[in-house]
Amino acid sequence: xxxxxxxxxxxxxxxxxxxxxxxxxxxxxxxxxxxxxxxxxxxxxxxxxxxxxxxxxxxxxxxxxxxxxxxxxxxxxxxxxxxxxxxxxxxxxxxxxxxxxxxxxxxxxxxxxxxxxxxxxxxxxxxxxxxxxxxxxxxxxxxxxxxxxxxxxxxxxxxxxxxxx
Length: 165
Fold this sequence. Notes:
The protein is mostly helical and 165 residues long.
């Protein structure tokens, strides 16, 4: 399969998945959008220096003159997977949430490793490997989970609530 075709397929899957998973539980819609945006911010902050130092490169990507990173991975697929992780772990205990992160970062790491070996979409350099990808993904999932839990805590304890009369 040509790299551009695979990128197009991943884009369609990502956009379709975003619509489905962001609108899945409408009562928590603001949480899902917040998670999506926080994950995008965290990924941008981490991915930028990694790409600038050429540890990780995306040779085939949309808008190569504007972006060094792959916007499909960075702004669609990774944030979507974080929303899915948070929906999956929404009512779980801390330990189960922690252990569940590997159900999401593991397959994503395997997919990225496969793409690095079989396509021109991802290129590892300077010792970068799947262990770094797995660690970064797991860390960002847990960081975003912690952020949204903190936001929920603040909202429940200090947020604006209607007074019952």
